[in-house]
Amino acid sequence: MAVSIRLRREGAKNRPYYKVVVADKRSPRDGKFIELIGTYDPKKTGHNSTLKLDRIEYWMSKGAQPSDTVRSLIKKNRKENSAQAAVGAA
User: What is the domain count for the chain?
Assistant: First the structure.
């Protein structure tokens, strides 16, 4: 089974809110998914996403491919986590 990590749209009209899910590539955008691993709110400024990076690493090790948007969210969250770890260690 080909697995992808992608966004699932939620929220009202003109007020999108996304959940980051692991799903079969063949399932529809808002259809069945395997696991919920985060959220993303594009209308919110600043830190607008939460991701379970350990679960993302697990699924990517199993061959899951993140979408372009999810890939950029992962990169941003990793950068924020490393910055917080550096501040906490100092």
Answer: 1
